[in-house]
Structure formats: C-alpha cells, structure tokens
Design brief:
Layout (H helix, E strand, L loop, with lengths): L11 H31 L5 H4 L5 H36 L5 H16 L2 H12 L8 H27 L2 H9 L4 H31 L11 H12 L2 H31 L23
C-alpha cells in the first residue's frame, strides 16, 4: 500500500488516541446539549404554549413569507450587486493608470473599514427616513453591497494576481490587449481560485441581513419580535429563527459547492509512492 509524500499514515497508537478524542468530544457535546435542555426545562421554556406558534399554519406562513422570503431577497440582491461592485473595483485596483487605481483603493479601504451596521444606519438616515426615496429594505441591500463588494474587490484582486504571470505574458505575446487578457485569460482562471472566498462571503451577506432589524427592515429577525411580544417566548423564538438561518446557510453552501465542483471539477490526488517503496507489480524500489 502506497502512502502520500505529504501525509504519514497514522499508526495504531495514533488511531486509538484519535478515537478516544472523538468519543470524549461527543460525550462532552452530548453533556452540553443535555445541560442546555435541562436548563430550558427547569425554566419552563419547553412548555407547549411557548412553542405552539411555530406549529400554527398562520404563524408558519408569516415567518416564511414575511421573514425568510424577505431575507433571501435582501441577500440575493446584495450578493449580485456586491459581485459586480467587487469585480469593477478589484480590476480598477490593478489598473496601470494611477487616477483609476488610487480612487478605487480609497473606496475599497473605506467601505472595508466601516462596520456594516453603521453603513445601514447612514443609508437609512440619508435615504429612507422621512420622505426618503428608498425603504429600509434597500438600505440593507446598499449597506451589504458596499461592505461585501469591498471585501470581494480584494478577493478578485488577489485571485487575479494568483494566476501565474506566464499566462498573461503568453497572451500579450500573441497580440492580445490588456482588456482581452483580463476577460479571456486571467478572470476565468482566477474565478476557480476565488470561488471558496466568494462562497464564504455569500454566507456572510445572508447572515448580516439580520442587522437590518435595527433600522426596521423586514426579515427573519423582524418577524420574531411580534411573536415573542405576544407569547413571551423569547428563547423558543430565538432558537427557531437561528435554526432557520443555519438551515438556509447550509443549503446555500451546498448549492455553491455543487456549482464550484461543476466549474472547477473534481481534483484528483496523485498517489505518489514513498522513496524506496516497492512497486506493486514487482520488487524494484522507486529511486
């Protein structure tokens, strides 16, 4: 049996030790979950009356339509606009013209530094309060677009720079212009490098929609308030809303991973024999 040159196969003692660690971790986790459930039971948080709203069709529809659907809409628009924003400013930061590169750097660094919640507050007071032209829904979208777009701009810049320099040099050698090199050579290869970071930022954008609660934006966190004010079930409401966020993020990550595998393809790990290891077909060692 051949082993990878990058990883030494664990021996019997190491395998046994890892199994002990796994069992101990599972026991500790089960203990924490049991303690949490017992604490909730002792505090009366497991009573049926507190959980009844989440089994009632009217409240389920309210949570899914007015909560989950609005959250997904805000996340969708934010992610799409952030990708466009990040691509534009990421490429601008690589420009040969200083009058393009400097302002792009300033915009990206500014919006990366400002907290998302403050961006939402600024957008709300400038565009939504009073007779403002936009609603709090779009203020959340604008704030998430600016922040996540600034982060993705750095991702795009780093991804493009990670492509081997010889790719661009070969393209220039056959007469391509810089725009052609960027769109047909560098970006397609950079996307494969950037996909994990883009997927991670999509999850961040989805979770940060919850901050819209502060500026009265719709979403999952907003629909939770009327429920716990009516039934005084803050803990069950928080558990249900958190569970929905976790489920949606898992689905988003799963879909994005499928897209990544479709674009990049499965990576095959080469089984490189160790130095001095005999071939399977004979006794000649690998030198």
């Amino acid at each position: 049996m051949s082993a990878s040159v990058l990883f030494d196969a664990p021996g019997p003692r190491t395998i046994a030790r890892h199994r002990i660690y796994t069992v101990a971790s599972l026991v500790a986790l089960a203990g924490l979950v049991g303690f949490a459930v017992w604490t909730m039971y002792d505090a009366g948080q497991l009573e049926y009356a507190l959980w009844e709203p989440f089994l009632t069709p009217e409240y389920i529809e309210y949570i899914l339509v007015d909560g989950l659907l609005k959250t997904l809409q805000m996340a969708f628009f934010s992610i799409v606009f952030a990708v466009v924003f990040g691509l534009a400013f990421g490429v601008a930061k690589l420009s040969d013209h200083e009058w393009v590169r400097r302002p792009a750097w300033l915009v990206v660094e500014f919006f990366r530094a400002v907290p998302v919640l403050l961006l939402m507050v600024f957008a709300f007071y400038m565009l939504a309060i009073g007779d403002g032209p936009l609603s709090s829904f779009w203020c959340v979208v604008i704030a998430l677009t600016l922040y996540n777009g600034a982060v993705l701009a750095e991702v795009f810049r780093a991804g493009i720079n990670a492509v081997p320099r010889g790719q661009a040099e070969a393209a220039y050698a056959i007469g391509m212009r810089k725009a052609q090199v960027m769109t047909t050579v560098l970006l397609p290869q950079a996307v494969k490098i950037m996909l994990p970071a883009i997927i991670s930022q999509m999850v961040v954008a989805l979770k940060d929609t919850s901050l819209g609660y502060y500026i009265l934006a719709p979403g999952l966190t907003a629909v939770g308030k009327p429920i716990y004010l009516e039934f005084s079930n803050q803990v069950p409401t928080a558990i249900v809303i958190t569970g929905i966020y976790v489920a949606v993020n898992l689905v988003l990550t799963w879909v994005a991973t499928l897209v990544q595998k479709r674009l990049v393809g499965e990576k095959k790990v080469l089984d490189v024999p160790m130095v001095g290891e005999a071939h399977a077909s004979g006794n000649t060692p690998v030198l």
